[in-house]
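Project outcomes to date are best conveyed with an example. Our students and postdoctoral researchers have been running inverse folding experiments weekly, and each run begins with a structure described purely in tokens. The record below, which covers 65 residues, was selected by the lab manager from last quarter's runs and is presented without edits.
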């Protein structure tokens, strides 16, 4: 397996993990009546995780073809 492919996959997994942790934290804060804080964590997690995922997808795509 090419190294770039593995790196791309690792970035994708890390991106999804960041989104999952951010959403879990957002729900936890939301249940504690901290709405704005909750939304801030959710948006940061979605942005950060999305950037990691897209970067991994681009690297993986270049490795495949």
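After processing, the design step wrote out the following sequence:
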């Amino acid at each position: 397996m090419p190294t770039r492919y593995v790196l791309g996959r690792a970035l994708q997994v890390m991106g999804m993990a960041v989104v999952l942790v951010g959403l879990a934290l957002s729900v936890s804060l939301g249940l504690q009546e901290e709405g704005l804080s909750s939304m801030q964590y959710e948006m940061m997690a979605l942005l950060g995780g999305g950037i990691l995922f897209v970067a991994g997808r681009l690297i993986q795509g270049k490795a495949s073809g």
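The first helix runs from residue 3 to 31. Residues 3-64 form one domain. The training component of this project remains on track.
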